[in-house]
Amino acid sequence: MKALLTTLACCSLCAAVSPAFADEVHSARADALFRQAQSLLDAGKVEAACSKFEASEAAENGLGTLLHLGDCYERVGRSASAWHAFLEAEAVAHAKKDVERERVATDRVAALEPKLTRVVFVVPPTSRVPGLTVQLGDNTIPAASWGAIIPVDAGVQHVSASAKGHRPWSLDLNVARGDSREYRINVPTLSPIPEPNTDRRSIFRSAGIVTSGVGVAGIGAGAVFSALSHNADDASTCARGVIQCTPSRSTRAGYSDAAAVSFAVGGTLLATGITLFVLAPAPDNKEQHAPLRVAARVSTGGGRLQLEGAW
What we know:
Blueprint: H1 2-24, H2 28-42, H3 46-59, H4 63-75, H5 79-96, H6 99-112, E1 117-122, E2 133-136, E3 139-141, E4 149-152, E5 155-162, E6 169-175, E7 182-186, H7 200-230, H8 249-278, E8 293-299, E9 302-308
Parallel strand pairs: 1-7
Antiparallel strand pairs: 1-4, 2-3, 2-5, 5-6, 8-9
């Protein structure tokens, strides 16, 4: 008897919806999708039919499509989605002054309400950290809806909360079909993510080792340039058979200048590296200092590096 009444109710819905549907559809795409949904529904492929009804409703919002979509949702056990569809259809019918279909939608809403599974997000003041976002699946629950009753479909409902600078929280709620209960979900206070502990001592010592290494390389380059400047007896500048030959002044002077700059820069970098390594602050030294800066000064008379800052 109950199955018969359900069948009669579905037939009444189709009778109430179908005749006026053709007058509402203006989109060829929406019409084609709707017809595909009807064919799938007749073939018993209800899930696929619901997807087509969804696509048809997205292409062209129509009262008839909403009623068919709600009925399809209810057949597959998606009570909350069906309730939302019928509730929207009720509002659209009321705006259109379509009394008959408004009554159909109202009756379906009333019939579904006792079957709904509901969740309530409880977010105490201590949990409301700045930037808190609460989500039900892919949908963000606005703060105005915290504490309000939200119908959900059967299945696994993923609940999460997140905020910048805090560890996220999540929960999977397994809702059984026909479970007309109310779940109160308490959103906990999110744990802050600790800021990374910067070891200034390690940074200073690492900088000192690197700087010293570059300084040693600079001194080595200076030694090479110095040797070249002393042996700059370039044969190409002396005529064959000439007893006295003076090397090219420009070549020797270039090597000498390069050696002077390399020794100056390398020595300063080595001294700076040693200073950074030896005077690195203790690990627990929280005092803020001006950042160190190495300024290079090179001129025709030589070169120098200048270390500035405090530690």
